[in-house]
Amino acid sequence: MTAYVVIIRQQTTDPEAYEKYFDLAKLASADGAQFVAKNSEFQILEGPDAEAAVILSFPDMEAARKWYFSDEYQAAVVHRLRGANFVTVLIDGEVNLPEGYPGT
């Protein structure tokens, strides 16, 4: 089942550290990953303001975890988190609605 990683950048605090992240992140193997949305136009409907949002799709949860927890990506994440405040979510693409819910 497809899995998604949603990365929301709330506020940049150190642009130089954040730029270092980009240099290192591309070294991490992301087999089967695809950008669904990357720094596209967005609107916050609920919750705190944000500067940017990215959605990546992976073949499954295992592939997403393999990428995120890889040594290469974790070396990059240190700089991303030093450079800005984020909320990052991994979500399975399966839809689990209660019986009788509209659309089931």
Question: What would you say about this model in short?
Answer:
The protein is built from 3 helices and 4 strands. The chain is of the alpha+beta class and 104 residues long.
Q: Notable features of this structure?
A:
Alpha-Beta Plaits, globular, 3 helices, single chain, 31% helix, 30% strand, 104 residues
Describe this structure in words.
The chain has 104 residues and is of the alpha+beta class. It has a single domain, classed as 2-Layer Sandwich (Alpha-Beta Plaits). Strands 2-3-1-4 form a four-stranded antiparallel β-sheet. The longest helix has 13 residues. It is globular, with a radius of gyration of 15 Å.
Strand order, biggest sheet?
2-3-1-4
Q: What is the CATH class designation? A: Alpha Beta
- Supply the CATH architecture: 2-Layer Sandwich
How many strands?
A: 4
Number of helices: 3
Outline: globular
* Overall pLDDT score: 92
Give the CATH topology.
Alpha-Beta Plaits
